[in-house]
Write a structure and sequence with these properties.
The chain is of the alpha+beta class. It is 49% helix and 11% strand. GO terms for molecular function: aspartic-type endopeptidase activity.
């Protein structure tokens, strides 16, 4: 006769997925070796993410576009030419009788009409026509140099506009008056006087400003060498 075991309602049903409970001694040994983590809120330090701030590097100014150059160049050219023509008209109206007005020191107002070339050079009977052609060619060359020199020096368009505006004023006087270009600003010296007009002053000021651009160009050519490509030498500055 088979032995019948008594039914225990509190016994746990063991399945293959349920691991067997280790003996009491083994369980106590495992509990002793397992570390219990201790968290202290007061001692906890939270590391904030650090942001690395890169130093700001000043970017090189971008070269001006052709439209921006035109907006800077042609209005100044027109302003210089208008100022020259207005002052010539005032001088002709005030000094039409060939009288001289002293301004103090070596300066005076004295009206003369210049029919010769620059520096008083006489080129014969066609000097007036040759002056017109030469002045127009020089103005065209100055306009063509604006985008080239602007890549080297951002102040070059101002210098070129002063020179081209003065040339345009004298060219307009040559075309409108067969008597020549009115000069009325006299600077006296021991051997006589230099007589000029406002256009000449603007052209001289533009030439002085252009000397800075020429100096920058010479320095760039020395830095890059004479065999360096033009695009590398005429870099934006």
């Amino acid at each position: 006769m088979a032995t019948v075991l008594p039914f225990d309602p509190h016994a746990r049903r063991r399945t293959p997925a349920t691991p067997a409970t280790p003996p009491r001694g083994e369980r106590e040994r495992q509990e002793r070796v397992v570390p219990i983590p201790v968290s202290r809120t007061a001692d906890r330090v939270t590391a904030l993410p650090t942001t690395r701030i890169a130093p700001a590097v000043a970017a090189a100014p971008a070269p001006l576009s052709e439209r921006a150059l035109a907006k800077r160049f042609f209005p100044l050219l027109a302003l210089v030419a208008i100022a020259d023509l207005v002052t010539k008209a005032i001088a002709v109206a005030l000094l039409g009788g060939q009288e001289s007005i002293a301004l103090g020191g070596p300066l005076s107002l004295h009206l003369v009409y210049n029919t010769a070339s620059a520096g008083g050079v006489w080129l014969g009977a066609h000097t007036r026509e040759l002056n017109m052609v030469a002045t127009g060619v020089v103005i065209g060359m100055l306009v063509m140099l604006v985008p080239v020199l602007a890549r080297l020096d951002r102040h070059a368009p101002t210098a070129l506009a002063l020179m081209a505006g003065g040339g345009a004023g004298n060219l307009a006087s040559l075309v409108s008056s067969p008597r020549g270009v009115p000069d009325f600003l006299a600077l006296h010296h021991q051997d006589g006087a230099w007589i000029m007009n406002v256009a000449d002053l603007f052209m001289f000021a533009g030439l002085l400003l252009l000397m800075r651009t020429i100096g920058v160009l010479v320095l760039a050519m020395r830095t890059h060498g004479p065999r360096q490509r033009t695009d590398a030498v005429l870099a934006p500055r």
